[in-house]
Amino acid sequence: METVSTIEELRLRLAPLRRAGKTVGFVPTMGYLHDGHMTLVANSRSGNDVTVVSIFVNPLQFGASEDLDKYPRDLARDSAMLEAAGVDFLFAPTVADMYPRPMETVVDVPKLGSELEGAARPGHFAGVATVVTKLFNIVQPDTAYFGEKDYQQVSVIRRMVEDLAQPVRIVPVPTVREADGLACSSRNVYLSAEERRAAVIVPRTLDEAERLIREGVRNPAELEAKLDAFIRSEPLATPEVVAVRHPKTLEPLETIEDAALILLYIRIGKTKLLDNRVIDIASENGMEAA
């Protein structure tokens, strides 16, 4: 595996591979890798000749009161994991490499990016769309892989790619979970032992949503209220987003007919955790999308 820190060097390394007709798969990350990231890597390696992984903690997607400085970082650990997984290139730029001067250009998907998690984190998805566009311009991948745990993020990126005719195929990959059902996340490391035990309320809330829908709850507002109360039964949990939406458009539903997307953004102590599930009423067991 080659580790590259500058845009020019990465372009130089990838150019002859493209000329030789090699396909390039790309996994953008902020590092502190876990099994979910490595599943994205495995998907890229199985579908492409060359796999590039980026590690960049992007300041544009953090708010003033968020955890940019505290976000976990361990490049040596991550590099060893990626090398063992057979990654071809690790792109690990600094902030100065990516943003040599303050960015004036912003890529935004304002409707999709300003609600749900975007309402709780104003400007977050504009920061995501901007850095992902820049990374796509640098790597020029054929295919890019994103985890479905970040369902709204995947929706924003898909819409951005479609609107801007960016020549990259977006592949969402199902969420990888820990043994008790909690979605793998770099932020799980923030949880104390007590908070980690409490965090199971997140996947349990998805199970509760499925149970309620199976029992006949069809009113989205009623379902959201019941789930909010269920989350609050855990003293360490504070629901910030509990939403029932259309799985494809993320639009609010008037009634639950065929399928419903349950989106959760829950704070456990000071740590914010995302999760979601698509519940297909026609399916006996539902369909987990993250």
Automatic annotation (TrEMBL):
Pathway involvement of the protein, from the record: Cofactor biosynthesis; (R)-pantothenate biosynthesis; (R)-pantothenate from (R)-pantoate and beta-alanine: step 1/1
More about this protein: The reaction proceeds by a bi uni uni bi ping pong mechanism.
Name listed for the protein in its UniProt record: Pantothenate synthetase
GO MF, one example: pantoate-beta-alanine ligase activity
Record-linked InterPro entries: Pantoate_ligase (IPR003721), Pantoate_ligase_C (IPR042176), Rossmann-like_a/b/a_fold (IPR014729)
Family classification: Belongs to the pantothenate synthetase family.
Protein residues bound to ATP: 30-37, 147-150, 176, 184-187
Subunit structure as annotated in this protein's UniProt entry: Homodimer.
Record flagged with keyword ATP-binding: yes
Subcellular locations according to the entry: Cytoplasm
Annotated binding of beta-alanine, by residue: Q61
NCBIfam families in UniProt: panC
Residues that bind (R)-pantoate: Q61, Q153
Function: Catalyzes the condensation of pantoate with beta-alanine in an ATP-dependent reaction via a pantoyl-adenylate intermediate.
Catalytic activity: (R)-pantoate + beta-alanine + ATP = (R)-pantothenate + AMP + diphosphate + H(+)
TM annotation in the entry: none
EC number: 6.3.2.1
Keyword Coiled coil among UniProt keywords: no
Cited Pfam families: Pantoate_ligase
